[in-house]
Write a structure and sequence with these properties.
The chain is an alpha+beta fold. 29% of the residues lie in helices and 20% in strands. The chain is built from six helices and eight strands, in the order E-E-E-E-H-H-H-E-H-E-H-E-E-H. Strand 3 (29-30) and strand 4 (33-34) form a beta hairpin. The N and C termini lie far apart (127 Å).
Amino acid sequence: MRVKRDGVEEKRPTSLPCRHIPRRRASNSYGGIPLIFLFDFYPDLENCSKAQAVAKKLTKGISKKGTRIHTKVHFYRPKTLSLERNPKYSSKSVPKKNTLDKHSIIKYPLTTESSMKLIEDSNTLVFIVDIKANKRQIKAAVKELYNIECEKVNTLITPRGLKKSYVRLSKDFDALDVANKVGVI
């Protein structure tokens, strides 16, 4: 079939099957020919609804969302859904036991000459205690084990890596009697 276009005769086929139309194309042309002119060359193409839909999309451009206008220089990651943990089993089979009880806090009383002098002179008992124990725990452990009131607790860590605590007793209690009861003297 011959058709005159701009004064020039062109030969074109009478029909084109739908499979020749590109399904997913980002550009607005088919083989270098703009899609708008395809309908001029192939009038049977307009009857093919799939081809029309594809051509319409390609001429218009496929855009589901409009482009976002960024007003800041920096990009901040969007907050996504964060679900709360829902484990099928616990990560530990047995709950952790408190290892610092009153018997493990105080290891043993110290029976050196200097500690004996402190018992006699300044109403103070000397204990070797657990390295992780703090002054409040030591005070509570002495109160529970020996039923005595402490005025104050001083601690130091020896060069051997042991924690030594000086437990000053209140005026109501005598360190010498408590030392006899404990078995220091």
